[in-house]
Amino acid sequence: MKDLTTDIEETHPVGRLFDLDVIDINGQKLSRPSFRKCIICGCQAQECARTRKHSVNEMQSKIEEMLMEFDCQKV
Prior knowledge:
This protein is mostly helical. It has 3 helices and no strands. The chain has helices spanning 2-11, 45-51, 56-74. It is globular, with a radius of gyration of 14 Å. It catalyses: apo-[citrate lyase ACP] + 2'-(5''-triphospho-alpha-D-ribosyl)-3'-dephospho-CoA = holo-[citrate lyase ACP] + diphosphate.
């Protein structure tokens, strides 16, 4: 199940905008097999978030770009 959700996050055109958690029968969150990549620079997302490498405006612009591209693909 975790592999499926990771695949959706990494391959769907706007999948990176989601954080799909999978909880096991003991209530424990299953970890991803690899680190998430930053949608702006491609580095490890956790490091960019921790250091606040990108501004809110940069993130909003990238998200808007991703959503616009996805919407245009549907037409």
